[in-house]
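Hi P.,

Sorry for the delay on this. The queue was packed all week, but I finally got your sequence through. Input first:
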Amino acid sequence: MPIQTEEELRAIYAEPKEAVLQKILPRLEKHSRNFIAHSPFIVMATSDAKGHADASPKGDAPGFVHVSDDKTLLIPDRIGNNIADSLRNILENPEIGLIFFIPGIRETLRINGKCEIVSDTGTLSALEAQGKAPRSALKVTVREVYMHCGKSIIRSDLWGESNKIDRSEFPTLGKILADQVAGRDEAEKLDEYLEHSYKENLY
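Then the structure:
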């Protein structure tokens, strides 16, 4: 039987210690700001009005997420596949969850809050990279900020060598798409297109 109530859940998981709850802060302070300044990669979670969830990777040079003040973040939306899952979700449900990663650091930074999509020239010009402004940005109003311990990173050896594989041992995205999507171009052509896009269309 699936667990359906918090009472059933707490029969398995003890209540969190007070020290754990105290680490959940209502605003950004010097350590969270410092973490964001060094982070080149985040995972962004959103959901639509029906609760259908989506997690999207976002990455750029360290500090690409801009801290406006202790309650506000700006996340540039660089060129992607134009499906716009996260953006469409935000139009229906402004809640957002973020996890910040720093390569080599076991701990992560988690932020939850509400956001809106902005596209004014002043905001976007401040988020330029490689001489190009994003098409839009997410303005996040922070509700919760907290450091997350490194157990999952340690268990996965994410920053270590043990799980790395040679690129030749894994199929290319072009090969995967050629197998998954009937009637598409053959793998070699797809890989050539992707490599061109990676070189010419990152911004």
